């Protein structure tokens, strides 16, 4: 991170999103992506525009011939953190495509002509990225049981969206590439699912098995289900780069397996977690 960006970020966080200097009077957000290679958090201050219920950012890099690092990061790992000064939330970053990208860029450039100047400097098509807030429906209970329900609810919602997008693009899913909306939400779902299952296998389940030895066979079965779902997830991620006619079927199979897994896990674990009172 440059010393200039570091200073802007510190001032932003210290003053609820307000900064001075060259950005005085401008609205900024902080966008945090995960490094595609390093796996480390990468935060940048960015100007933004408002879309239909979402924020839009432009990967201008001041007209450079290469996309900025944060754009490459979000293509690999679409889940990002957004700070507005008033709040912080998670979003799925989805670059606009085709005519929609052109219309959004033209509107933004009319309001901020500098973006048009940046586009004139480079042959690359400057991306416009929609930050689509992830709408979680928090459970009504607290503790570990509530957190488990929140995570499961998020996974179900993302997978339902992926299924809907796959059904809406029957011609695209058998083509050479998927629509970016479908691709980004599919990646966000798969990465989150992998992290959730690893956390369960490494932390929650060993702890619960110590407290409830009679559940050992249940945890062995759930671990085996995790491995089956992990294989399906890996196949789904590979299919993003070389989709064929079977992509929708892969999504449907993942949905069936995951729904059955989540239902069974909740039936067995929620009573135990609620009894812990944690």
Protein architecture, described:
The chain starts with a helix and ends with a helix. By secondary structure, the protein is an alpha+beta fold. A seven-stranded antiparallel beta sheet has the order 2-1-5-6-7-4-3, with helices on both faces. The model has no long low-confidence stretch (mean pLDDT 90). Helix 5 packs antiparallel against helix 8 (247-276). The protein contains eight helices and seven strands, in the order H-E-E-E-E-H-E-E-H-H-E-H-H-H-H. Helices cover 56% and strands 14% of the residues.
Number of helices: 8
Output the radius of gyration.
Answer: 21 Å
Provide the helix percentage: 55-70%
Strand residue content: 5-15%
Largest sheet features: 7 strands, antiparallel
The helix/strand series, from N terminus to C terminus, equals HEEEEHEEHHEHHHH
Shape: globular
The count of DSSP E runs of length 2 or more, i.e. the number of strands, is: 7
Sheet with most strands: strand arrangement: 2-1-5-6-7-4-3
Average pLDDT: 90
* Low-pLDDT runs: none
> What class would the helix/strand composition place it in?
alpha+beta
Task: Describe the structure in brief.
It contains 8 helices and 7 strands. It is α+β, with helices and mostly antiparallel strands and 278 residues long. The chain has a 7-stranded antiparallel β-sheet, with helices on both faces.
